[in-house]
Amino acid sequence: MSQNIVPPEVRNTLKVHDTLKVHDTPEVHDTLKVHDTPEVEISTIETRLVYGFLDAGKTHYIQDCILNDYFHKYGTTLILSFEQGEESYDLQALSSRRTSVACYEGDEDVAVFCRRCIEKIRPDRIYVEMNTMMQGLREKFPECMKVTFSVTFIDWATLPLYFANFKQLMKEMVAASQQVTFRACPSKNQLARFSQPFRLMNQTATYLRQDPMGYHERAFDRFLPYSLDDDPITITEDNYLPFWLDAYELPEHYEGKTLRFTDPLELRQIAENDTKDPHSAARTTPWSAGRVVMICCMADLQFMSFELEIDADTASGLVIPTGGWITLDALAQIGADEYGRKRLKLKPTSIHRAQPPKDLIMDVSRGRIR
Q: What are the Cα distances from residue 275, in Å, to 10, 38, 159, 245?
């Protein structure tokens, strides 16, 4: 390793672009020779995944993180690139930050490629530039790569095109991410129409807008088509999804409030293993009420519902259907799911049978109900 940058012809042969001049010492050479032996065990390595379609800004983000942060002082970094767009890595600048780049050429098993690179470089952390078109890529990584953070970048200029034609691929990226950034978006108002679909793809992610000058802000404002001061709060077919999203994120908005569902909800029995209260040996009611929602396609249907709290006192004063469609008034209460997370539950005060709606599926992908 006598040069900062490996020549292209050597790079194509090795497929591992070792640019670490700072490591060009006899001690490191000896270490790398030892690490090339298959007997050496590899410990868990912190791994960060960067998703996005081609030229969404993944390379720029990874390089910017490495060049502007200080963790390079505390170890080495390996970049595994599974997609090469128009922007390339500045290998000389990365070498000054104790960083190596390895590009996957597609001619070997993914796990073998990753492990070979890890054994050679022995990194303290890994960034992975993901390729959206490589299905199941994350599942092919070796066990030593412990994913601690995932982010998706979406370029504003191509968002309408990809959203219209590659919605399922977009959902897979977003669902796997803790953060989603919309790059080069001129105005938050222009993102408003994408708020509901994206928040349904991943209800726990942080969504950011990056303007053309690089300023970041929250991508979506919370909008409720009703007042939280209403008594009761009326939930219709048109405002059910905004209500469900808000209740999922901030159930305390509704604690102790009366909710009136004037349009039909489907009543379903909850699977028995989903009804166990983690804080009690008792079983909760095995019923939930909600709507079937399609975010991307028919293979992606989700039943977005609320569990009904029906105790002995409640049941004695109500005629409770065993399935079908209902309208109801309910008192909102905060409970916990099987993981101890706060969830809104409904304690019915009145239940009425209802005819099924004309459209049984709420189709978010087209902004309408089917």
A: 60, 48, 40, 22
| 179-183 and 145-155 beta bridge pairing | parallel
Question: pLDDT digit string (tens) for 88-137?
Answer: 999 999 999 999 999 999 889 999 999 999 999 999 999 999 999 998 99
Report the first-to-last Cα separation within the chain, whole angstroms: 62
Task: Give the chain's domains with CATH numbers.
Answer: 8-218 (3.40.50.300), 233-369 (2.40.50)
pLDDT of residue 273: 47
Which among 166, 202, 158, 163 has a CA at the least distance from the CA of 183? 158
Q: Is 195 left (phi over 0), alpha (psi -120 to 50) or beta?
A: alpha
Q: CB-based contacts of 239: which residues, under 8 Å, 6+ apart? A: 224, 225, 226
DSSP characters for 166-179? -HHHHHHHHHT-SE
**Residues listed for the chain:** 370
Nearest to 328 by CA among 355, 351, 305, 360: 351
